[in-house]
Structure formats: C-alpha cells, structure tokens
Amino acid sequence: MNLDLTGKTAVVGGSTQGIGFATAVELANMGASLVLLARNEEKLRDAVGKLDTSKGQKHGYLVADYFQNDQVKNAIQSWVDAGNTAHILVNNTGGPPAGPAHTANIEEYLTAFKAHLINNQILAQALIPGMKEAGFGRIVNVISTSVKIPLNGLGVSNTVRGAVANWSKTLANELGAFNITVNNVLPGATETERLTSIISNKAGKTGNSEDKVAEAMTNQVPMKRFAQPEEVANAVAFLASPAAAYINGINVPVDGGRTGSL
User: Fold this and answer.
1) Which partner for 92 in 135, 142, 161, 218 could form a disulfide, CB atoms 3.0-4.6 Å apart?
2) By percentage, how much of the chain surpasses pLDDT 70?
3) How many CB atoms lie within 10 A of CB 190?
4) What sign does the dihedral 218-222-225-228 (CA atoms) show?
5) Contacts of 180 (CB under 8 A, 6+ apart)
6) What percentage of the chain exceeds 90 in pLDDT?
7) Could you give the domains of the chain?
8) DSSP string spanning 164-201?
9) Euclidean distance between CA atoms 29 and 161, whole angstroms
10) Closest Cα partner for 88 from 232, 234, 231, 241?
11) What is residue 85's three-state secondary structure?
C-alpha cells in the first residue's frame, strides 16, 4: 500500500494545535513538505520546528486569521504567485460557538460561513490549478459527524458543516477527472481545545461538574472514550495518500462508533 508522500506539498489549515497539527505531523512523517496556515506566527514557527525533515522535506508557514477572508486570500495567493504549488489541501478550522440554532443571530451564521465555507473556497481555488497541472490532488475537509446527524446545542455548526459537506461532494464530482479527490473526515468528540470549551459550556448550563459532563459524553460512545487528535489525523493522512486514489466524495466518521447511522 503506497502511503509515500515524498515530493508532495501539503497546505494544512488550523495547524498549530489539535487535529490540524496532528495531521501536519503525520503528513510530514509520510514525506510531505508542509505549509502550515494559522494566525499566530509564534505558534506556527514552533509547530514547523517539530515536523520531520528526514526525507528532505522543507516546511514553511503562512500567517492569516481565518476570520478575515482577505488575509487568507492574500496569504495563499502570494504564495502561489511566488511559483509554489500544493498537491494536498487540508481544510481545518475551529468550530463556531455552541448554542441553539433559533437563538443565534445573523452575524454568528455569517461569521461561521466565512470562516469555513468561504475560506475553503478561497484556498481550493488558489491551489486547484497546480493540482491539475501535477495530475495529483487531494482535498480533505475536517468537519463534523453533524453532517450525518445534527448535534444538539450546535445549531450554527450543524448548519455550516452541512454546507461544507455538500460543497465538497460537488467538487468531488467536478474534479475527479483530473485525478483530484475531495473527501471529508468527520471527527467525533476529540481531545482538543474545542472539546474542552464544549464541556465547559455544558457544565455551566447544567450545573454539573465538567467531569460528569465528560463522563456522560463518553458513555454515548461505544468505545467509551474520546478520540486522540492523532487518530483523526491518521484518517486524513490516508485520504491524502496515493493509496486512496479511488476514494472520492465520501464522509469518513472517526467517532468510535457514536454516530447512529451508517
């Protein structure tokens, strides 16, 4: 099974921590050169310094705030205009704040839509021409199991994640002929800062301790534990590999069996 990414370049969003950083580590271990994209330059420099270079990889980073579409567009376009191309794009950014859909204001929806779908489109449009020229492309979107079954209390997230999933399937149909695949990885509850925030929010609303909230959440998972970021990253990395060449337009849950559907 060919998992070798030597000579390939990957752009990974939200890659200074959590699933994004774990994905960058795994792709580098497989031989890819990484371009990390996030807003904190100090954390980016630190993350780049932790990536494997034993196969001659050359890593770098781009600084942009995902809440500022112009920053993302300028950063990636400047990189492409400098003669760079990427074979792999991993779209990943933190989810919107928790809360019901019916009480969320319009600005919350617009902010989430721009941070997720619009940035994904900006990055894809900038990198797809290079993928076509190379005859190899992988776009992997890290979204949520809510695209299969909406999660209670995550109204804005459920809505926007669903939009990204359908955008992805549409791209898969359009780009498959160019040997570019587009797939989604759907993490379940994963031990990241995002999960810590969700647990804290639930504890505050219910009056239960955070430990009790976490226990109730893991009890909903057949494996009775949260995922580690590396376990989600492994799925992303496989979909980015040559071995996954004929896997296109699908959702891959990595949730320990929690989602109540196939």
Assistant:
1) 142
2) 100
3) 22
4) negative
5) 128, 131, 132, 136, 137, 138, 139
6) 93
7) 9-188+228-253 (3.40.50.720), 189-226 (no CATH)
8) HHHHHHHHHHHHGGGTEEEEEEEE-SBSSHHHHHHHHH
9) 29
10) 241
11) coil
